């Protein structure tokens, strides 16, 4: 059983930052010659992807919780006008 909730958006953001750090390290070591402007779209795209994954995961989690709550609810809903109320 996991100790905490998995957060895929944070994982995507972390992998993006690791990739950027690797690119900067390769550029600093001279193994790769990339202009600084190359990293800006990767950074912004990675953050956008992380936000999108976070939003999708939130929607899935909310839908799963609603479905679970609906399945656990065994009580009939109350009528709108109260004519079927138990007295």
UniProtKB/TrEMBL annotation:
Source species, domain of life: Bacteria
Residues spanning the membrane: 35-58
Source taxonomy: Bacteria, Bacillati, Actinomycetota, Actinomycetes, Kitasatosporales
Keywords (A to Z) from UniProt: Membrane, Transmembrane, Transmembrane helix
The keyword Membrane is annotated on this UniProt entry: yes
Region described as Disordered: spans on this chain: 66-87
Entry protein name: Uncharacterized protein
